[in-house]
User: Fold this.
Amino acid sequence: MCLGDVYGGTFELLGENLPRLGIETTFLTAGETDQLPDVLTDRTRIVFFETPSNPDLDIFDIAAITAHTHKAGALVLVDNTFATPVNQNPLHHGADLVIHSATKYLGGHSDLTAGAVAGPAELLTPIAGWRKNLGQVIAPEIASLLARSIRTLVVRVRAQNVAATAVAEYLAEHPRVTQVNYPRPGQRRPSRHRQNPDARPRWHAQLPRRR
Ligand SMILES: Cc1ncc(COP(=O)(O)O)c(C=O)c1O
Assistant:
């Protein structure tokens, strides 16, 4: 099951490549997500979504989707590329696995292509076996560039949050702009996650027009 809009390559993988291997995906638009409990069946294995999504920056309630999905015996897989682990950690809200295009914020210097998957060992171990045999093993040079990048991830993303908020606020005030879709991360301290793992991520999906 795939919720909302997703990166074009992912859409092709789910819609064109995987069906040839007998793996079918049902697509729900962001507006249809409340139908999820009715659409889940005992054949559903994974519910997948990006939050914020690419390209519309839709926000999904990870904890609520996880509750429905787990009731149906399926796993939740979240693409957290746009949020980054600095702004959101889906595992803290019940998701089973999280993926990232490390080519984006994790890499941050436009000099590498990589991906990452995070989750509990029992789910990652079989993925490592597939990765080895399918050739998705990161080259050592790229891995060392990524390790360099991740050291500065927190300061880069915090600076980008400030800069992007300034741009979004400017646009929201602009007389020729009617709507700004800019999901702003809430101002939570990381410790609150640890104290209350059920705390939901707070996002403000749209900037209000002030005039
Ligand atoms: C949300 C999201 N996930 C995954 C990808 C794929 O990333 P990569 O180019 O690193 O394979 C992209 C690329 O734009 C993306 O936007």
